[in-house]
Amino acid sequence: MTRVQILQEIEKLTPAERIRLIGAALKTLDKKPRIRSANHNAKMLQRRLRAAAKVLKNDYQPDGELTSFTALDAERFHA
Fold it and tell me: How many domains does the chain have?
């Protein structure tokens, strides 16, 4: 369908139908930026998590400070 044909069909609608059509068309425009934004935010989060994991990697390796606390796993904390 061409743009002219679409406009001709729209002219056949009642004013209320035209308003609903405009609202539906606007919603389709609104969805695309949100999808891109969500994808962009997810990628940024992945990059930040990777960077944080690299910084903390040595702490979680054997003989790192955080793994030294596992020696206490067998001890009771509550009497």
Answer: 1
Q: Is the dihedral of CA 40, 42, 45, 46 positive or negative?
A: negative
Measure the CA–CA gap between 28 and 49, rounded to whole angstroms.
Answer: 32
Could you list the residue range(s) of the whole structural domain that residue 40 is in?
3-71
The residue type found at 1 is M
Residue 29 lies in a domain: yes
Confidence band for 5, pLDDT divided at 50, 70 and 90 = very high
Contact 44, 38 (CB under 8 A): no
Q: CB within 8 A of 60, min separation 6: which ones?
A: 66, 67
pTM (predicted TM-score): 0.39
